[in-house]
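Check the record.
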Amino acid sequence: ILKQELINDLIRILICYRQNCSPNSSPQQLILPEYLKLLPLYINSFLNSDCINGGREIPPDDKSYSLYFSLSCTLKDTNSMFYPRLLDVLSMISINEQINESQEGYSCEYCLPNGIIQIRSSYERLNSTKIYLLENGINIFIWMGKQIDPNIYYNLFGNENTDQFDGVVLDHLPSIDSQLSISLSNLIAQIRKLRCRFLRIYICQQDHKSEYFFKKYLCEDRGGNSNNNSSYVEFLCMLHQEIRKNLSD
C-alpha cells in the first residue's frame, strides 16, 4: 500500500506540474520540474531498499534496522543511503600526492579526495580492470574487477591471490606500504568520520557470490530482488506511461 501511495503521489505531482507549468509540451516527452528532477530516482531507490522491499535473504532484524535508520538519519545520511556513492578507487593514483588522513586534499562538503572520480550507481558503468568503493552510510563495499592487474591487488592486500579476501568482512585494510593502500585506508577513515559511525568493509569480486550485496545497492539497477524491483529507467517509463494515460482520460 505504501509503495503504491508514493507512486500515485509522485504521478499527481508531475501531472499538476505539466498541466500548470508546461501545458504546451509534447505528450511524448516526460517533463520533470527543475528542482524535482531527482525525486523519481530517490523514490524508486527507496521502494527497492531493504526497509521497504527486502526479500527473504534479509533477516528481520536487518530489515528493521534499515527502516529505523532511514527514519532517524540526517539528510546527508539519507542521501547516501538511497543513492550510495560509487567511487573509482584507481583514480586516486592520478593524484600526485598520497591522500593523507587530515582534511587537506579533500572536498570538505562530501569528504572526497580532490580528483577522485564518482560514477553513477549502475553495474554497466563498472570497468572489470578497476576497483570501486561503494558506501551507503551503513557499510563500505570494495568491488574488485575480474581483469584487475595482479600488481594492483598486491599493492592493496599484499597478496596476488585474488580469492584470499573474496567475501571477507574487515574492520581495517591490511597495512601495506603503498600509495594505493595508504590513500584508500585514509579515504575510508574520512568516510567514517563523516558518517560518525564505524562502517565495516566488505570485499567482493566480480562474478562471485560475494558481489550480490554490492549489486543490491546499485540503485539505478533493479538491485537484488529483480522480480519485484524496477530499474531507474523502467521506473521513469512507467511514470511517463501513467501520466500520458491520466492526461488522455
User: Anything to note?
Assistant: The chain has a mean pLDDT of 84. The CA atoms of residues 83 and 219 lie 6 Å apart.
